[in-house]
Amino acid sequence: FNRINLIYGTISDYCTEQSCPVMSGGPKYEYRWQDEHKYRKPTALSAPQYMNLLMDWIEVQINNEDIFPTNVGTPFPKNFLPVVKKILSRLFRVFVHVYIHHFDRITQMGSEAHVNTCYKHFYYFVKEFNLIDTKELEPL
C-alpha cells in the first residue's frame, strides 16, 4: 500500500481532473468507485478522485483492528480474505492507470526500474496466493 501510494504520489501532479477525467487503464478499462457510504452504486470518477477515495478507504481498512488484528492470539475475521482481495484488486488499478497514462512521466524521472520492481513483487505475490482473478490482471 505504502509503495503504491508513493508511486502514485510521484505522478499525481500530472494526474488531474483535466488530464484524467476518467479513472481508466486505456480505452478498454474503466474503473468505477463503489463503497458502503456515499457511492453505493459503481460511479464514474476522475482518476484523482478515485485515487483519493481509494487510498483513504484502504487506510481505514488496514487500520481496522477488526479486520487486521494486531494483538497476539486475536484471530483474523472470516471476511479477511475477501477484504484483502478487494484491497489488492483496487491497488492493481493504480498500477494499470500509472502504466497506461503516466509511464512517460515515470520514465522522465528515471523511476521505471523502481516502479517495475514494485509491480513485479506485487504481481508475483498476488499470483502466488491467487489473490486477484486472472481476468482482472489482463490490462497489464
Automatic annotation (TrEMBL):
<dbReference type="Pfam" id="PF03637">
    <property type="entry name" value="Mob1_phocein"/>
</dbReference>
<dbReference type="InterPro" id="IPR005301">
    <property type="entry name" value="MOB_kinase_act_fam"/>
</dbReference>
<feature type="binding site">
    <location>
        <position position="15"/>
    </location>
    <ligand>
        <name>Zn(2+)</name>
    </ligand>
</feature>
<feature type="binding site">
    <location>
        <position position="20"/>
    </location>
    <ligand>
        <name>Zn(2+)</name>
    </ligand>
</feature>
<dbReference type="GO" id="GO:0016301">
    <property type="term" value="F:kinase activity"/>
</dbReference>
<keyword id="KW-0479">Metal-binding</keyword>
<feature type="binding site">
    <location>
        <position position="102"/>
    </location>
    <ligand>
        <name>Zn(2+)</name>
    </ligand>
</feature>
<feature type="binding site">
    <location>
        <position position="97"/>
    </location>
    <ligand>
        <name>Zn(2+)</name>
    </ligand>
</feature>
<keyword id="KW-0808">Transferase</keyword>
<keyword id="KW-0418">Kinase</keyword>
<keyword id="KW-0862">Zinc</keyword>
<dbReference type="InterPro" id="IPR036703">
    <property type="entry name" value="MOB_kinase_act_sf"/>
</dbReference>
<protein>
    <submittedName>
        <fullName>MOB3A kinase</fullName>
    </submittedName>
</protein>
